[in-house]
Amino acid sequence: MTRTLLLIVLCSFSLRAANSDSFLLRGGTVHPVSGPDIPNGAVLVRDGRIVEVGAKIAAPKGVRIIDVKGLHVYPGLIDSASQIGLSEIGSVRETNDAAEIGDFNPQVRAIIAINPASEHIPVTRANGITSAIAAPTGTLVAGQAALIHLDGWTWQEMAIAPSAAMVLQFPVIQARSGSRARTGAVPFAEQKRNYERRIQELRRFFEDARRYQKAKAAAPAGFETDLKYEAMLPVLEGKLPLVVQAARERAIKDAIAFAEREKLRIIISGATDAWRVAADLKARNIPLILGPTLALPAEEDDPYDKPFTAPGELYRAGVKFAFGSFSTQFARNLPYQAAAAVAFGLPYEEGLKALTLNAAEIWGVADQIGSIDMGKWADLIVTDGDPLEVRTQVKMAFIKGRAVDLSNKHLRLYQKYLERP
Amino acid sequence: MKSTILLLLLSLGAAGVHAKPPSTYAIRGARIVTVSGATLEKGTVLIRGGLIQDVGANVDIPADAWVIDGHGLIVYPGLIDSLSTLGLAEAEPADAPAGQRRSPPAAQQTPARGPEDRPATTSWLRAADMINPADRRIESARNAGFTNAVTFPQRGMFAGQGAVIALAGERPGDMVVATPAGMYLTLSTAGSGGFPSSLMGVMAYIRQVYLDAEHYKLARQQYASRANGAQRLPYDRALEGVLEAPRILLPASRAVEIERMLKFAAELKTPAVLYGGHEAYRAADVLRKTGTPLLINLRWPERGREEDPERMDSLRILRLRELAPSSPAELAKAGCRFAFYTGGIPMRDLRKAVKRALDAGLSHADAVRAFTLSPAEIYGVADRLGSIDRGKIANLVITDGELFAERTQIKYIFVDGVKYEPLPEPAEEREANR
Amino acid sequence: MRRAGVLLMAALLPALAAPPVVIRNANVITITKGNFKGSVLLRDGKIEAFGEKIVIPSGAEIIDAAGQYVMPGIIDPHSHIASESVNEGSISVSSMVTIEDVLNPEDIAIYRALAGGVTTAAIMHGSANAVGGQSAVIKMRWGKNAAGILFGNAKPILKLALGENPKRRGNPTGQTPPRYPASRMGVEDVIRQAFTEARNYRDAWREYEAKVKRGERALPPRKDLKLEPLVEVLEGKRLVHAHCYRADEILMILRLADEFGFRIHALVHALEGYKVAKEIAAHNAGATTFSDWWAYKMEVADAIPYNAALMFKKGVQVSLNSDDAELMRRLNLEAAKVVKYGGVSENDALAMITIMPARQLGIEDRVGSIEIGKDADLVIFDRHPLSSYAKVQKVIIDGEVYFDRDRDATERTAREREKKALIEKARERQKQSAAPARRPS
Question: How many domains does chain C have?
Fold first, then answer.
């Protein structure tokens, strides 16, 4: 009860603080992630940006001081895979906007479909996640993923990178056709043919896009703009990474080969079997979006703890990765993906990085977010402990220096029904 | 095709030209594997009137007997395929594992709403009434040494009543040796979204049917004793069929299924025979304890040709594939009752399949028994089939070497005392199969 | 003769009675008897003693758990692993089916759950229909057969289901004809019908028995496997677990149960249970819930992670369940979320995955806490079980170590080796079968 009251008090305090995006946080342990922890440190924020981090910062005149004694300050966590803002209620079609019809939709943009009023936003940030990738989930070239702040009146205000990556759902051969395998409904040869057809279609699309690129450069008379190919240009020019969804070993290998052939910069996402191809990934410096770590082993004979140990193995192999929730309803549990990996061999600092700085680097926004460093947005969370521990409470959160409301639908319903006579 | 017509003509000729063909044979000086008793190194089998009239080291050969010189030959009882669809018009479904076949959608027009609708149940069907002597597989099986098969309708949960048939005969009625041989059950679901749609639903259904049958019997007796003034009973052909069956056949391949079905059979209070048995090497103990016989499918589990070559099979599956052929040896060692069935494998693969069981430690004698006396005992026809004994039906297979050995050739087959000689396989087919 | 007998006894004794096991130097969380640093003594599959200082019997096997945490084995009151069926969804009342028929003791999910500290689970029929099937309570005795994993003498349970799932077939999207019910109104009707039928059925049997007693000639009623379990519910011999989400349907099933005179032992999921916590507590129903699931369908739009805490504060016996082979591996962290959301004490949170589910399954006299005489089902964590970093080190069921993290590592290597050899052999077989057979001479 007292705990709840405290929370409410803190919330309202945060709200009051929201009218200013300049302040000095001090008295807590600062975990910049990019460097060593600073006990009894301070972070000075001005106009939403971090202007100073250190053990002792003199409070400039007129700047509000927030005392966080006994608490911990971390950079806001980044969810590198979600449908936040694109999906509200899983089973209600009308509330889902993550998937389009058709195989090739590079022109569709997640950012403009983000619902800033989604209940998922306050629920997720209440656990310290301050930004997230919201990615389309359609077939093959699914569209452009957005990197957003989990705060803002409009999607425009929320955007960190309105187009953070192009999403490609890599085709798969159904390695297991479940009960259908029993009746032999789809023989492997046929599945493989279908798969090869899909790959061919994909290659043709990239080839067409390149021909378009060439034609456009030559600017012949009567050249007509095509939105699909137009959207592919940044990908072909290496300005926009291609985030490839590939889970199993074969798909990952094929995706790597595809990227080689097409000379594309890729990020592999949802790579369950990445540990099987760690050397290949390292050799090509392909970054990964891992997850979910809290998953079952892919094969019956895999060690029971394979999903937990895999991130540590990848780290030791030199592969760079960040974690994603691959969810909307469970996005708030993102830190526990890292915790499971840490429990089973990933160094703690690396687990934390995979939630912050690594993610920012992979998405090309390390100059803006991902650590507590000068010049970056003041995306900060203040906790009473290690954010990877479930029992830890997030006490305050700042996005672009604004204190965000940690209340949400869940807390409101709780308070309401707690009072039911 | 041509060869079939030829054979058909030959057999018709035999029956047609001679009203009473000579029926007395003496196989003299052969090695005789009686199966029921000691093997005679040099003995004679006397056949008359379709029966084994005598067998022994010193048998008086009557003057009218046609003598076959058995020097260098071995006489075995005719082989019995203990679970098949031989002689039934409907072809064996593709190589779907037994017990997992889907029922034909036609059998279920509207989805069943419960056990009362008797879904996927044709317990009243009798294989004996459905025999088609023109089934081409009969000849092929006979050429491989099979003189009998136990044949069953196999679609649905209660598929129907089996029959022990002879693998020769002109008319369907000639071929039936014993009926009903048992009720064939599968654990297939009803399909069309009707009841039952799950394994546990199927088991609940079967259980309810047995309770219903018991109740039906009681009600029928009461009604028969005093019909006047009593409400008449509906006739339930499904239950009639169930009550008629002397035993039930239940599918059980994995060890967990064997244990599950043994428990289930005990609950149903009906004599049961299990079929499948690939993982029986892990269940010998419990099979011996219950004394329930097991029919072992000689189609040993292997990775399907159409499977993804990169797919990783689990250790569980790999072990099963390696060890399934050791099941017969393990059961023999434990003293369990078991018989073989060919599971629809091509006859040319039979020796290879048996060889795997032999390689895994099964004795040759036990292998022969699993194809002869054991199935005869399991189906309660050991008084007429399964061994070379006086008075039994003269079903024999005569070879020039040990049965199942790679170079052994089958010289003669006797079915009901009628002699057949296997035709060589058509040459091109032989090549094509390699 | 006597000598032979003695010899025989001597030979059998070690096999019959495994040596007692002592776990010592552990941080012991008993759930019902407080926490302490000390030892637990296990003998013959039961907990014989525990305390800061206990007498260690000679010959005891010692497990040194210095710095580690020992708690009762985790109990998952709602799971679908180890079964070859989940739903008999073809009909609205499928109470004739039972999970016990189709247990699969070789489901790898058992081992994985074991490695997550789970020792007991209720394997439930799914929620596709209003009156589902009968469940089976199992222990994670990995390596045993179907009979060997059964909890043994657990009370039978019947599953009911309310809300979106049972009415889904009433609003089919494909070509299947609709199946009643299509609304929450119909769901109640189906359940009421079923129990009314069960009452009539019970009366028919009573009438028959009375006739027999009077010496009258009578035909017994047809034994109906669908209605038998419902009669057991009416007679209080079978527990009821009801899948539900919304407050309205929770209240409905409580009132219906009141009317027919039985108790709902567990409201399963009950994500809006917090809205009617008072009513749930008054009925003395338990609730088994998810810690933080929400938003996956319309009926969980108002689900909140404070549900468990709020119901608990209002006097409901609350447990957490997985309903999922993956979540089942980390129920301890689900308990941690109840601490996080709503501030339940750590001990009460752990009770939600031990003694509370045991009560909801009617097995609290045997499992769910460290008490003398209870089954020796324990889990040893390297850290406090509510820590995100806690790893299960050992799991003991009936005094026997079923999971050991070190042993797992050793077995891994052996299994890999065996697998490699078997793949090689299979390859060899395939080569042989492809090679032309020698032509008979």
Answer: 2
